[in-house]
Amino acid sequence: MVSTINKIAVMDPMGYPPKVAAKPMAPRLDTLDGKTIYLVDPRFDDSGNFMIQLQRWFGQHMPSTRTKIVQMARVYHTDDPKLWAEVKENADAAIIGVGH
């Protein structure tokens, strides 16, 4: 009796992660009074609902802080340079929301 041995090639699906350069967090503001905070909806699951709730919280607890809800042009993993330029020009700070 003759046996046949088949060989298969197996590839590692993990791949190699890209090198990432760490960046420091932005400095904190001394106060939020009178500031404009952009609430950025990155179109992650229910993040828009979270931004609405956060805006209500600011209205109740920090009424002198202005908030503006903005939505990324595409889903969160796609860059939105136009939005970031608007945030940089018009906001004192931004909160990018991820919700579940």
The topology string of helices and strands comes to EHEHE
**What level of helicity do the residues show?**
25-40%
Portion in beta strands = 15-25%
Q: Give the number of helices.
A: 2
Number of strands: 3
Spans where pLDDT lies below 50 across 5 or more residues: none
Amino- and carboxy-terminal Cα gap: 61 Å
Shape: elongated
Mean pLDDT figure: 89
Given helix and strand content, the structural type is alpha/beta
Estimated radius of gyration: 23 Å
**Which strand order do you get reading across the main beta sheet?**
2-1-3
Describe the protein's architecture and organization:
With 100 residues, the chain is α/β, with parallel strands linked by helices. It has a domain at 36-96. It contains 2 helices and 3 strands; from the N terminus they run E-H-E-H-E. The mean pLDDT is 89.
Give a quick precis of the structure.
The chain has 100 residues and is α/β, with parallel strands linked by helices.
Labels describing this entry:
100 residues; alpha/beta; three-stranded parallel β-sheet; 2 helices; 3 strands; elongated
Layout of helices and strands:
Elements: E1 36-41, H1 47-61, E2 66-71, H2 81-90, E3 93-96
Parallel strand pairs: 1-2, 1-3
